[in-house]
Amino acid sequence: MKKYYKILEKCPLFDNIESENLFKMLRCLGVKVESFDKKYTIMSEGSPARYIGIVLSGSAQIIQVDYFGFRSILSNIEPSQVFGEAFACAEIKSIPVTVVANEPCEVMLIDCSHILHTCSNNCGFHQQLIFNLMKDLAAKTISFHQKQEITSKRTTREKLMTYLSLQAKKEGCNRFQIPFNRQELADYLEVDRSGLSVEISKLRNEGVLYSKKNTFELLEKY
Amino acid sequence: MKKYYKILEKCPLFDNIESENLFKMLRCLGVKVESFDKKYTIMSEGSPARYIGIVLSGSAQIIQVDYFGFRSILSNIEPSQVFGEAFACAEIKSIPVTVVANEPCEVMLIDCSHILHTCSNNCGFHQQLIFNLMKDLAAKTISFHQKQEITSKRTTREKLMTYLSLQAKKEGCNRFQIPFNRQELADYLEVDRSGLSVEISKLRNEGVLYSKKNTFELLEKY
DNA sequence: CTCCATTTGTTGAAAATTCAACAGAAATAT
DNA sequence: ATATTTCTGTTGAATTTTCAACAAATGGAG
Protein backbone atom coordinates (compact mmCIF):
# COMPACT_ATOMS: atom_id res chain seq x y z
CA MET A 1 0.00 0.00 0.00
CA LYS A 2 2.94 2.27 0.75
CA LYS A 3 3.83 2.61 -2.92
CA TYR A 4 0.52 4.34 -3.63
CA TYR A 5 1.25 6.98 -1.03
CA LYS A 6 2.01 9.81 -3.44
CA ILE A 7 -1.03 9.09 -5.59
CA LEU A 8 -3.47 8.76 -2.72
CA GLU A 9 -2.19 11.95 -1.16
CA LYS A 10 -3.31 13.84 -4.23
CA CYS A 11 -6.72 12.17 -4.34
CA PRO A 12 -9.42 14.76 -3.63
CA LEU A 13 -11.22 12.19 -1.51
CA PHE A 14 -8.48 12.42 1.09
CA ASP A 15 -8.02 16.16 1.29
CA ASN A 16 -7.33 17.36 4.79
CA ILE A 17 -6.64 13.90 6.10
CA GLU A 18 -3.20 13.49 7.65
CA SER A 19 -1.11 10.92 5.85
CA GLU A 20 -0.43 8.98 9.04
CA ASN A 21 -4.19 8.63 9.48
CA LEU A 22 -4.78 7.77 5.85
CA PHE A 23 -3.60 4.17 6.01
CA LYS A 24 -5.40 3.52 9.25
CA MET A 25 -8.52 4.79 7.58
CA LEU A 26 -8.03 2.71 4.44
CA ARG A 27 -7.89 -0.40 6.61
CA CYS A 28 -11.05 0.72 8.35
CA LEU A 29 -12.72 1.18 4.97
CA GLY A 30 -11.65 -2.26 3.83
CA VAL A 31 -10.26 -1.10 0.52
CA LYS A 32 -8.96 -3.46 -2.13
CA VAL A 33 -6.60 -2.91 -5.04
CA GLU A 34 -7.11 -4.56 -8.42
CA SER A 35 -5.15 -4.58 -11.66
CA PHE A 36 -6.52 -4.51 -15.17
CA ASP A 37 -4.91 -5.00 -18.53
CA LYS A 38 -5.48 -2.57 -21.36
CA LYS A 39 -9.04 -2.63 -22.69
CA TYR A 40 -10.33 -4.65 -19.79
CA THR A 41 -13.59 -3.68 -18.14
CA ILE A 42 -13.26 -2.26 -14.64
CA MET A 43 -16.97 -1.72 -14.07
CA SER A 44 -19.65 -2.74 -16.51
CA GLU A 45 -22.97 -1.12 -17.22
CA GLY A 46 -25.77 -2.75 -15.27
CA SER A 47 -23.58 -3.99 -12.45
CA PRO A 48 -24.40 -2.90 -8.89
CA ALA A 49 -23.28 0.59 -7.93
CA ARG A 50 -21.32 -0.48 -4.93
CA TYR A 51 -17.78 0.74 -5.33
CA ILE A 52 -16.02 4.04 -5.47
CA GLY A 53 -12.86 3.70 -7.55
CA ILE A 54 -9.57 5.56 -7.47
CA VAL A 55 -7.10 5.19 -10.32
CA LEU A 56 -3.65 4.45 -8.90
CA SER A 57 -1.75 3.96 -12.14
CA GLY A 58 -2.60 3.94 -15.84
CA SER A 59 -5.83 5.55 -16.93
CA ALA A 60 -9.46 4.66 -17.48
CA GLN A 61 -12.33 5.89 -19.58
CA ILE A 62 -15.97 6.29 -18.67
CA ILE A 63 -17.99 5.25 -21.70
CA GLN A 64 -21.57 4.70 -22.77
CA VAL A 65 -22.42 2.28 -25.56
CA ASP A 66 -25.87 2.57 -27.05
CA TYR A 67 -28.21 0.03 -28.59
CA PHE A 68 -26.51 0.27 -31.97
CA GLY A 69 -23.04 -0.10 -30.58
CA PHE A 70 -22.15 3.58 -30.81
CA ARG A 71 -19.66 4.48 -28.15
CA SER A 72 -19.43 7.83 -26.51
CA ILE A 73 -16.68 8.73 -24.10
CA LEU A 74 -17.79 10.76 -21.11
CA SER A 75 -14.46 11.31 -19.46
CA ASN A 76 -10.92 10.16 -18.98
CA ILE A 77 -9.72 9.27 -15.49
CA GLU A 78 -6.09 9.81 -14.56
CA PRO A 79 -4.18 8.59 -11.49
CA SER A 80 -5.48 9.92 -8.16
CA GLN A 81 -8.85 10.72 -9.73
CA VAL A 82 -12.08 9.15 -8.55
CA PHE A 83 -14.77 7.35 -10.55
CA GLY A 84 -18.10 5.70 -9.84
CA GLU A 85 -18.70 7.91 -6.81
CA ALA A 86 -21.87 9.47 -8.22
CA PHE A 87 -23.55 6.11 -8.69
CA ALA A 88 -22.44 4.85 -5.32
CA CYS A 89 -23.57 8.00 -3.50
CA ALA A 90 -26.89 8.28 -5.29
CA GLU A 91 -27.57 4.75 -4.13
CA ILE A 92 -28.92 3.54 -7.45
CA LYS A 93 -29.13 -0.19 -8.13
CA SER A 94 -26.94 -0.40 -11.19
CA ILE A 95 -24.51 1.84 -12.98
CA PRO A 96 -25.45 3.36 -16.35
CA VAL A 97 -21.92 3.46 -17.76
CA THR A 98 -18.94 1.24 -18.37
CA VAL A 99 -15.44 1.92 -17.09
CA VAL A 100 -12.60 0.48 -19.14
CA ALA A 101 -8.85 0.43 -18.67
CA ASN A 102 -7.29 2.64 -21.29
CA GLU A 103 -3.88 1.14 -20.55
CA PRO A 104 -2.74 -1.36 -17.95
CA CYS A 105 -3.90 0.10 -14.69
CA GLU A 106 -4.36 -0.39 -10.99
CA VAL A 107 -7.40 0.86 -9.16
CA MET A 108 -8.38 1.06 -5.53
CA LEU A 109 -11.97 0.10 -4.80
CA ILE A 110 -13.85 1.24 -1.74
CA ASP A 111 -17.19 -0.25 -0.80
CA CYS A 112 -19.37 2.84 -0.61
CA SER A 113 -21.47 1.50 2.26
CA HIS A 114 -18.35 1.86 4.42
CA ILE A 115 -18.29 5.56 3.62
CA LEU A 116 -21.96 6.45 3.61
CA HIS A 117 -22.95 4.68 6.79
CA THR A 118 -21.14 5.64 9.93
CA CYS A 119 -18.50 3.10 10.76
CA SER A 120 -18.75 0.98 13.86
CA ASN A 121 -15.54 2.47 15.21
CA ASN A 122 -17.20 5.85 14.83
CA CYS A 123 -13.88 7.14 13.59
CA GLY A 124 -13.71 10.84 13.00
CA PHE A 125 -12.66 10.64 9.40
CA HIS A 126 -16.09 9.95 8.04
CA GLN A 127 -17.30 13.49 8.21
CA GLN A 128 -14.23 14.73 6.39
CA LEU A 129 -14.61 11.97 3.84
CA ILE A 130 -18.21 12.91 3.15
CA PHE A 131 -17.28 16.54 2.89
CA ASN A 132 -14.56 15.63 0.41
CA LEU A 133 -16.98 13.50 -1.56
CA MET A 134 -19.32 16.44 -1.79
CA LYS A 135 -16.58 18.70 -3.12
CA ASP A 136 -15.46 16.06 -5.56
CA LEU A 137 -19.00 15.66 -6.87
CA ALA A 138 -19.35 19.41 -7.21
CA ALA A 139 -16.14 19.49 -9.25
CA LYS A 140 -17.41 16.64 -11.42
CA THR A 141 -20.60 18.54 -12.10
CA ILE A 142 -18.58 21.51 -13.25
CA SER A 143 -16.52 19.38 -15.58
CA PHE A 144 -19.74 18.05 -17.06
CA HIS A 145 -20.77 21.62 -17.73
CA GLN A 146 -17.53 22.05 -19.58
CA LYS A 147 -18.06 18.94 -21.64
CA GLN A 148 -21.54 20.18 -22.42
CA GLU A 149 -20.06 23.47 -23.60
CA ILE A 150 -17.97 21.49 -26.06
CA THR A 151 -20.57 19.10 -27.37
CA SER A 152 -23.30 21.70 -27.67
CA LYS A 153 -21.39 23.25 -30.57
CA ARG A 154 -22.92 22.37 -33.90
CA THR A 155 -19.91 21.73 -36.10
CA THR A 156 -16.95 19.39 -35.78
CA ARG A 157 -14.57 22.31 -36.13
CA GLU A 158 -16.16 24.27 -33.31
CA LYS A 159 -16.28 21.25 -31.03
CA LEU A 160 -12.65 20.52 -31.68
CA MET A 161 -11.50 24.10 -31.19
CA THR A 162 -13.55 24.50 -28.03
CA TYR A 163 -12.04 21.32 -26.66
CA LEU A 164 -8.48 22.25 -27.56
CA SER A 165 -8.86 25.76 -26.17
CA LEU A 166 -10.12 24.40 -22.86
CA GLN A 167 -7.26 21.91 -22.74
CA ALA A 168 -4.69 24.63 -23.44
CA LYS A 169 -6.22 26.71 -20.68
CA LYS A 170 -6.18 23.78 -18.27
CA GLU A 171 -2.55 22.93 -19.06
CA GLY A 172 -1.59 26.59 -19.04
CA CYS A 173 0.29 26.04 -22.29
CA ASN A 174 -0.54 26.17 -25.99
CA ARG A 175 1.28 22.91 -26.60
CA PHE A 176 -0.08 19.85 -24.87
CA GLN A 177 -0.97 16.20 -25.22
CA ILE A 178 -4.47 14.86 -25.18
CA PRO A 179 -5.41 11.50 -23.65
CA PHE A 180 -7.20 10.32 -26.80
CA ASN A 181 -6.36 8.88 -30.16
CA ARG A 182 -8.44 10.00 -33.15
CA GLN A 183 -11.29 7.56 -32.72
CA GLU A 184 -11.47 8.29 -29.01
CA LEU A 185 -11.39 12.03 -29.57
CA ALA A 186 -14.25 11.62 -32.05
CA ASP A 187 -16.20 9.59 -29.50
CA TYR A 188 -15.54 12.24 -26.87
CA LEU A 189 -16.57 15.14 -29.12
CA GLU A 190 -19.43 13.05 -30.50
CA VAL A 191 -18.53 13.42 -34.14
CA ASP A 192 -17.47 11.18 -37.00
CA ARG A 193 -13.84 10.13 -36.94
CA SER A 194 -13.13 10.70 -40.63
CA GLY A 195 -14.81 14.09 -40.49
CA LEU A 196 -12.64 14.93 -37.50
CA SER A 197 -9.49 13.97 -39.39
CA VAL A 198 -10.55 16.17 -42.27
CA GLU A 199 -11.09 19.10 -39.93
CA ILE A 200 -7.73 18.63 -38.22
CA SER A 201 -6.02 18.62 -41.60
CA LYS A 202 -7.80 21.80 -42.63
CA LEU A 203 -6.86 23.60 -39.43
CA ARG A 204 -3.27 22.48 -39.89
CA ASN A 205 -3.20 23.81 -43.44
CA GLU A 206 -4.73 27.07 -42.32
CA GLY A 207 -1.93 27.45 -39.79
CA VAL A 208 -4.33 27.45 -36.86
CA LEU A 209 -2.76 24.49 -35.14
CA TYR A 210 0.06 22.03 -35.19
CA SER A 211 -0.68 18.40 -34.49
CA LYS A 212 1.19 15.17 -34.49
CA LYS A 213 -0.40 12.09 -33.03
CA ASN A 214 -1.89 13.18 -29.73
CA THR A 215 0.24 16.30 -29.35
CA PHE A 216 -1.44 19.56 -30.31
CA GLU A 217 -0.37 23.16 -30.37
CA LEU A 218 -2.61 26.13 -30.85
CA LEU A 219 -0.76 28.68 -32.96
CA GLU A 220 -0.90 32.43 -32.59
CA LYS A 221 -3.18 32.81 -35.53
CA TYR A 222 -6.17 31.55 -33.64
CA MET B 1 -42.07 31.21 5.45
CA LYS B 2 -44.82 28.86 6.56
CA LYS B 3 -46.40 28.84 3.11
CA TYR B 4 -43.34 27.19 1.62
CA TYR B 5 -43.56 24.33 4.07
CA LYS B 6 -44.78 21.71 1.62
CA ILE B 7 -42.22 22.63 -1.00
CA LEU B 8 -39.27 22.74 1.36
CA GLU B 9 -40.24 19.42 2.87
CA LYS B 10 -39.76 17.81 -0.53
CA CYS B 11 -36.43 19.51 -1.13
CA PRO B 12 -33.65 16.89 -1.19
CA LEU B 13 -31.47 19.30 0.74
CA PHE B 14 -33.65 18.82 3.80
CA ASP B 15 -34.09 15.07 3.77
CA ASN B 16 -34.10 13.58 7.24
CA ILE B 17 -34.49 16.91 8.92
CA GLU B 18 -37.55 17.15 11.15
CA SER B 19 -39.93 19.83 10.01
CA GLU B 20 -39.97 21.49 13.42
CA ASN B 21 -36.21 21.84 13.16
CA LEU B 22 -36.32 23.02 9.57
CA PHE B 23 -37.40 26.58 10.26
CA LYS B 24 -35.00 26.97 13.13
CA MET B 25 -32.28 25.88 10.77
CA LEU B 26 -33.36 28.21 8.00
CA ARG B 27 -33.04 31.10 10.41
CA CYS B 28 -29.60 29.89 11.39
CA LEU B 29 -28.63 29.72 7.72
CA GLY B 30 -29.87 33.24 7.10
CA VAL B 31 -31.89 32.36 4.04
CA LYS B 32 -33.65 34.92 1.90
CA VAL B 33 -36.55 34.60 -0.51
CA GLU B 34 -36.69 36.55 -3.77
CA SER B 35 -39.25 36.82 -6.56
CA PHE B 36 -38.59 37.04 -10.28
CA ASP B 37 -40.83 37.79 -13.20
CA LYS B 38 -40.86 35.63 -16.28
CA LYS B 39 -37.63 35.83 -18.28
CA TYR B 40 -35.76 37.62 -15.51
CA THR B 41 -32.26 36.52 -14.62
CA ILE B 42 -31.90 34.82 -11.26
CA MET B 43 -28.15 34.26 -11.47
CA SER B 44 -26.00 35.50 -14.28
CA GLU B 45 -22.88 33.96 -15.75
CA GLY B 46 -19.76 35.45 -14.26
CA SER B 47 -21.33 36.43 -10.97
CA PRO B 48 -19.84 35.07 -7.74
CA ALA B 49 -20.78 31.50 -6.89
CA ARG B 50 -22.10 32.27 -3.48
CA TYR B 51 -25.67 31.06 -3.31
CA ILE B 52 -27.46 27.79 -3.37
CA GLY B 53 -30.95 28.28 -4.76
CA ILE B 54 -34.18 26.39 -4.19
CA VAL B 55 -37.16 26.99 -6.46
CA LEU B 56 -40.27 27.57 -4.33
CA SER B 57 -42.75 28.32 -7.09
CA GLY B 58 -42.65 28.65 -10.87
CA SER B 59 -39.71 27.17 -12.71
CA ALA B 60 -36.25 28.14 -13.87
CA GLN B 61 -33.86 27.09 -16.59
CA ILE B 62 -30.12 26.65 -16.44
CA ILE B 63 -28.71 27.96 -19.71
CA GLN B 64 -25.41 28.62 -21.40
CA VAL B 65 -25.11 31.28 -24.07
CA ASP B 66 -22.01 31.14 -26.23
CA TYR B 67 -19.98 33.83 -27.96
CA PHE B 68 -22.31 33.85 -30.95
CA GLY B 69 -25.46 34.07 -28.89
CA PHE B 70 -26.40 30.41 -29.26
CA ARG B 71 -28.35 29.28 -26.26
CA SER B 72 -28.26 25.80 -24.89
CA ILE B 73 -30.51 24.67 -22.09
CA LEU B 74 -28.85 22.42 -19.56
CA SER B 75 -31.81 21.71 -17.34
CA ASN B 76 -35.16 22.78 -16.09
CA ILE B 77 -35.65 23.36 -12.38
CA GLU B 78 -39.04 22.72 -10.80
CA PRO B 79 -40.30 23.66 -7.32
CA SER B 80 -38.37 22.08 -4.45
CA GLN B 81 -35.39 21.44 -6.69
CA VAL B 82 -31.97 22.91 -6.04
CA PHE B 83 -29.70 24.90 -8.37
CA GLY B 84 -26.29 26.51 -8.17
CA GLU B 85 -25.13 24.05 -5.52
CA ALA B 86 -22.31 22.65 -7.63
CA PHE B 87 -20.71 26.06 -8.14
CA ALA B 88 -21.15 27.03 -4.52
CA CYS B 89 -19.72 23.75 -3.22
CA ALA B 90 -16.80 23.64 -5.63
CA GLU B 91 -15.85 27.08 -4.34
CA ILE B 92 -15.17 28.57 -7.74
CA LYS B 93 -15.08 32.33 -8.15
CA SER B 94 -17.83 32.78 -10.69
CA ILE B 95 -20.57 30.67 -12.16
CA PRO B 96 -20.32 29.45 -15.77
CA VAL B 97 -24.08 29.43 -16.46
CA THR B 98 -27.09 31.69 -16.30
CA VAL B 99 -30.29 30.86 -14.42
CA VAL B 100 -33.46 32.47 -15.77
CA ALA B 101 -37.05 32.44 -14.57
CA ASN B 102 -39.11 30.45 -17.00
CA GLU B 103 -42.28 31.86 -15.49
CA PRO B 104 -42.88 34.12 -12.50
CA CYS B 105 -41.11 32.38 -9.67
CA GLU B 106 -39.93 32.56 -6.10
CA VAL B 107 -36.59 31.19 -5.02
CA MET B 108 -34.93 30.70 -1.67
CA LEU B 109 -31.26 31.63 -1.58
CA ILE B 110 -28.82 30.24 0.94
CA ASP B 111 -25.35 31.67 1.34
CA CYS B 112 -23.21 28.60 0.84
CA SER B 113 -20.59 29.70 3.34
CA HIS B 114 -23.22 29.14 6.03
CA ILE B 115 -23.46 25.53 4.95
CA LEU B 116 -19.87 24.67 4.16
CA HIS B 117 -18.24 26.17 7.20
CA THR B 118 -19.43 24.97 10.57
CA CYS B 119 -21.85 27.40 12.08
CA SER B 120 -21.00 29.26 15.25
CA ASN B 121 -23.89 27.63 17.07
CA ASN B 122 -22.35 24.31 16.09
CA CYS B 123 -25.88 23.13 15.41
CA GLY B 124 -26.18 19.48 14.59
CA PHE B 125 -27.90 19.94 11.27
CA HIS B 126 -24.78 20.75 9.34
CA GLN B 127 -23.61 17.22 8.96
CA GLN B 128 -26.98 16.12 7.68
CA LEU B 129 -27.08 19.10 5.34
CA ILE B 130 -23.70 18.25 3.88
CA PHE B 131 -24.70 14.62 3.51
CA ASN B 132 -27.84 15.73 1.69
CA LEU B 133 -25.84 18.04 -0.52
CA MET B 134 -23.62 15.15 -1.43
CA LYS B 135 -26.57 12.99 -2.41
CA ASP B 136 -28.13 15.82 -4.35
CA LEU B 137 -24.90 16.36 -6.28
CA ALA B 138 -24.66 12.64 -6.99
CA ALA B 139 -28.19 12.71 -8.36
CA LYS B 140 -27.36 15.74 -10.50
CA THR B 141 -24.37 13.93 -11.94
CA ILE B 142 -26.61 11.05 -12.92
CA SER B 143 -29.07 13.34 -14.62
CA PHE B 144 -26.18 14.82 -16.59
CA HIS B 145 -25.35 11.33 -17.75
CA GLN B 146 -28.89 11.04 -18.95
CA LYS B 147 -28.76 14.30 -20.82
CA GLN B 148 -25.51 13.17 -22.36
CA GLU B 149 -27.22 9.98 -23.50
CA ILE B 150 -29.73 12.14 -25.34
CA THR B 151 -27.41 14.67 -26.92
CA SER B 152 -24.81 12.11 -27.95
CA LYS B 153 -27.24 10.79 -30.54
CA ARG B 154 -26.39 11.98 -34.02
CA THR B 155 -29.77 12.79 -35.55
CA THR B 156 -32.59 15.06 -34.47
CA ARG B 157 -35.02 12.16 -34.60
CA GLU B 158 -32.92 9.98 -32.34
CA LYS B 159 -32.34 12.79 -29.86
CA LEU B 160 -36.04 13.55 -29.74
CA MET B 161 -37.09 9.93 -29.36
CA THR B 162 -34.47 9.28 -26.69
CA TYR B 163 -35.65 12.32 -24.78
CA LEU B 164 -39.33 11.43 -25.07
CA SER B 165 -38.72 7.82 -24.09
CA LEU B 166 -36.84 8.90 -20.98
CA GLN B 167 -39.62 11.33 -20.09
CA ALA B 168 -42.28 8.66 -20.52
CA LYS B 169 -40.27 6.36 -18.30
CA LYS B 170 -39.82 9.08 -15.68
CA GLU B 171 -43.53 9.96 -15.68
CA GLY B 172 -44.50 6.32 -15.80
CA CYS B 173 -46.96 7.12 -18.57
CA ASN B 174 -46.85 7.31 -22.36
CA ARG B 175 -48.73 10.59 -22.31
CA PHE B 176 -47.04 13.52 -20.63
CA GLN B 177 -46.22 17.18 -20.82
CA ILE B 178 -42.75 18.56 -21.32
CA PRO B 179 -41.50 21.79 -19.71
CA PHE B 180 -40.35 23.25 -23.03
CA ASN B 181 -41.83 24.97 -26.04
CA ARG B 182 -40.36 24.11 -29.44
CA GLN B 183 -37.46 26.53 -29.38
CA GLU B 184 -36.58 25.50 -25.84
CA LEU B 185 -36.79 21.82 -26.69
CA ALA B 186 -34.46 22.46 -29.63
CA ASP B 187 -32.04 24.28 -27.34
CA TYR B 188 -32.20 21.42 -24.87
CA LEU B 189 -31.65 18.73 -27.52
CA GLU B 190 -29.08 20.94 -29.24
CA VAL B 191 -30.69 20.88 -32.65
CA ASP B 192 -32.25 23.35 -35.06
CA ARG B 193 -35.80 24.36 -34.20
CA SER B 194 -37.22 24.10 -37.71
CA GLY B 195 -35.58 20.74 -38.20
CA LEU B 196 -37.12 19.62 -34.93
CA SER B 197 -40.58 20.70 -36.08
CA VAL B 198 -40.11 18.76 -39.30
CA GLU B 199 -39.14 15.66 -37.37
CA ILE B 200 -42.11 15.94 -35.02
CA SER B 201 -44.43 16.24 -38.00
CA LYS B 202 -42.91 13.18 -39.62
CA LEU B 203 -43.23 11.09 -36.47
CA ARG B 204 -46.83 12.22 -36.13
CA ASN B 205 -47.60 11.20 -39.71
CA GLU B 206 -45.90 7.88 -39.19
CA GLY B 207 -48.16 7.25 -36.21
CA VAL B 208 -45.24 7.01 -33.82
CA LEU B 209 -46.43 9.79 -31.57
CA TYR B 210 -49.18 12.23 -30.86
CA SER B 211 -48.28 15.79 -30.02
CA LYS B 212 -50.09 18.99 -29.36
CA LYS B 213 -48.23 21.94 -27.96
CA ASN B 214 -46.14 20.59 -25.14
CA THR B 215 -48.19 17.43 -24.64
CA PHE B 216 -46.74 14.29 -26.17
CA GLU B 217 -47.85 10.69 -26.34
CA LEU B 218 -45.75 7.78 -27.50
CA LEU B 219 -48.02 5.42 -29.43
CA GLU B 220 -47.85 1.64 -29.45
CA LYS B 221 -46.16 1.57 -32.79
CA TYR B 222 -42.85 2.68 -31.38
C1' DC C 1 -63.58 41.09 -30.99
C1' DT C 2 -59.57 42.83 -33.14
C1' DC C 3 -54.87 43.73 -33.35
C1' DC C 4 -50.32 42.50 -32.41
C1' DA C 5 -46.69 39.58 -30.94
C1' DT C 6 -45.15 35.06 -30.37
C1' DT C 7 -44.94 30.37 -31.59
C1' DT C 8 -45.09 26.61 -34.75
C1' DG C 9 -44.88 24.37 -39.18
C1' DT C 10 -43.13 24.28 -44.01
C1' DT C 11 -40.09 24.90 -47.79
C1' DG C 12 -35.85 24.87 -50.57
C1' DA C 13 -31.02 25.82 -50.88
C1' DA C 14 -26.53 25.66 -48.83
C1' DA C 15 -23.48 23.59 -45.66
C1' DA C 16 -21.93 19.94 -42.79
C1' DT C 17 -22.01 15.33 -41.18
C1' DT C 18 -22.05 10.58 -41.81
C1' DC C 19 -20.78 6.48 -44.06
C1' DA C 20 -18.05 3.13 -46.61
C1' DA C 21 -14.04 2.13 -48.74
C1' DC C 22 -9.26 2.38 -49.28
C1' DA C 23 -4.25 3.60 -48.96
C1' DG C 24 -0.38 4.88 -46.37
C1' DA C 25 1.74 5.29 -41.73
C1' DA C 26 2.65 3.62 -37.34
C1' DA C 27 2.73 0.24 -33.87
C1' DT C 28 2.96 -4.57 -32.39
C1' DA C 29 3.90 -9.33 -32.62
C1' DT C 30 6.46 -13.18 -34.26
C1' DA D 1 13.58 -7.93 -39.83
C1' DT D 2 9.19 -9.01 -41.49
C1' DA D 3 4.46 -9.74 -41.20
C1' DT D 4 0.26 -8.34 -39.28
C1' DT D 5 -2.69 -5.37 -37.06
C1' DT D 6 -4.20 -0.91 -35.82
C1' DC D 7 -4.52 3.90 -36.66
C1' DT D 8 -4.92 7.99 -39.53
C1' DG D 9 -5.99 10.68 -43.49
C1' DT D 10 -8.56 11.08 -47.89
C1' DT D 11 -12.27 10.72 -51.06
C1' DG D 12 -17.01 10.93 -52.96
C1' DA D 13 -21.82 9.89 -52.37
C1' DA D 14 -25.80 9.93 -49.51
C1' DT D 15 -28.00 11.76 -45.66
C1' DT D 16 -28.99 15.24 -42.38
C1' DT D 17 -28.69 19.62 -40.45
C1' DT D 18 -28.71 24.37 -40.66
C1' DC D 19 -30.37 28.65 -42.24
C1' DA D 20 -33.52 32.15 -43.96
C1' DA D 21 -37.86 33.29 -45.16
C1' DC D 22 -42.62 33.01 -44.85
C1' DA D 23 -47.37 31.40 -43.72
C1' DA D 24 -50.50 29.58 -40.42
C1' DA D 25 -51.85 29.07 -35.76
C1' DT D 26 -51.96 30.53 -31.12
C1' DG D 27 -52.23 33.61 -27.26
C1' DG D 28 -52.72 38.15 -24.95
C1' DA D 29 -53.74 42.97 -24.45
C1' DG D 30 -56.65 46.55 -25.03
Q: Give the CATH superfamily of the largest domain in chain A.
A: Jelly Rolls
Helix and strand sequence of chain A: HHEEEEEEHEEHHHEHHEE
Number of separate structural domains of chain A: 2
CATH architecture of the largest domain in chain A: Sandwich
| Straight-line distance between termini of chain A | 47 Å
Fraction in helix of chain A: 40-55%
The number of helical runs of chain A is: 8
Main interface by residue count: A-B, 38 and 38 residues
Mean pLDDT of chain A: 93
Oligomer: homodimer
Number of strands of chain A: 11
Radius of gyration of chain A, taken over Cα atoms and rounded to an integer in Å: 19 Å
**What sort of overall outline of chain A do the alpha carbons produce when their principal axes are compared?**
elongated
Q: Give me the secondary-structure category of chain A.
A: alpha+beta
Low-confidence stretches of chain A: none
Percent of residues in β-strands of chain A: 15-25%
* Top-tier CATH class of the largest domain in chain A: Mainly Beta
